[in-house]
From TrEMBL:
The active site is at residues 185, 271, 300. Substrate binds at residue 90. Transmembrane segments: none annotated. PANTHER family: CEPHALOSPORIN-C DEACETYLASE. One of its GO terms (biological process) is polysaccharide metabolic process. Residues 2-315 form the Acetyl xylan esterase domain. Residues 35-54 are annotated as: Disordered. GO terms for molecular function: carboxylic ester hydrolase activity. It comes from the Bacteria. This is Cephalosporin-C deacetylase.
């Protein structure tokens, strides 16, 4: 069933979502610290039977210079190529190379970033730990380190995503003027953040994005992973103000206000995981109105493979 406001109201939904006064300084300092580490990226041929596209097993420095795994997949054509930095949904990881061939088949290089400390809920796994402790937290990562924006898990994951773009910009086989950040659900939220925080991102595709309008999301859906925050607050009854302050540093609405690149966002009106009002709140906050694809009768699967086709065509036009 429809889980949120009617579509005509969603298209005009522009809530007052507060942002921290030090938001820009916080992220500037975080990224400067990550970029100051001397750790170098490594790359070697992947152990896979896939031979038509070129597949490399990449390790690049993420938050704090910590190693983040990725697949780099490129079609067997001369470069430099347009490149997609692909960011993964909640609980998943980079998987196996043969699962990540779509963008190469469409003529793009892609860097598929592993997800630190996740990759064990669905899919084929990953290999990037999150070597940071945490205070008391609900199972999952939504409340890991939520006592402070400095210790919050998503500070590290967003930084990894920005550093993934840094990595592809150093590659001679990538056209630095045609790099896109793309993802679904958590990956969509990370794509919005990457587009906001990295000035060289040329396009953003965020499908049914997570991490948007977080205070509303926690209050109107009991689906995981937003329910992790509600469960945490049910125990830590006096922590709501600090929790939502921490979340405001990664909120997709606050990030969206800073996106300058062309953006496509998809939304599903029966999505109880990432409610449509939270997605439209982010879409409507982008200074240059994005392309919004609406799927009236879908849940969190969104547009599925149909949306992938639309995003490939859209990126072809934008990056041309």
């Amino acid at each position: 069933m429809l889980v949120d406001l009617p579509l005509d109201q969603l298209r005009d939904y522009r809530p007052e979502v507060p942002e921290p006064d030090d938001f820009d300084d916080f992220w500037a300092a975080t990224l400067a610290q990550a970029r100051s580490t001397p750790t170098a990226a490594t790359s070697e041929p992947a152990d896979t039977p896939v031979t038509a596209p070129r597949v490399e097993d990449v390790t690049f420095p993420g938050f704090g210079g910590e190693p983040v795994r990725a697949w780099f997949v490129a079609p067997p054509v001369p470069g430099p190529l347009p490149c997609v930095v692909e960011l993964i949904g909640y609980g998943g990881g980079r998987g196996l190379p043969h699962e990540r061939l779509g963008w190469a088949a469409a003529g793009y290089a892609s860097l598929v970033m592993d997800t630190r400390g996740q990759a064990s809920t669905w899919g084929s796994g990953g290999g990037t730990p999150d070597p940071h402790g945490s205070g008391p937290a609900h199972p999952g990562v939504m409340t890991r380190g939520i006592e402070s924006p400095q210790t919050y898990y998503y500070r590290r994951l967003v930084t990894d995503a920005v550093r993934a773009v840094d990595h592809v910009l150093t590659r001679p086989d990538v056209d630095p003027d045609r790099v896109a950040a793309v993802g679904t659900s958590q990956g969509g939220g990370l794509a919005l953040a990457t587009g906001a925080l990295h000035g060289r991102v040329a396009a953003v595709v965020a499908d049914v994005p997570f991490l948007c309008h977080l205070e509303r999301a926690v209050s109107i859906t009991d689906a995981a992973p937003y329910s992790e925050v509600a469960s945490y607050l049910a125990v830590h009854r006096g922590a709501a103000e600090q929790v939502f302050r921490t979340l405001s540093y990664v909120d997709g609405v606050v990030m969206a206000r800073r996106i300058c690149a062309p953006t496509m966002i998809s939304v599903a009106l029966m999505d109880d995981v990432c409610p449509p009002s939270t997605v439209f709140a982010a879409a409507n906050a982008i200074p240059v109105p994005p392309t919004v694809e609406v799927y009236p009768f879908n849940g969190h699967e969104g547009g599925g493979q149909e949306q992938w086709l639309r995003s490939v065509r859209w990126l072809g036009e934008v990056l041309a």
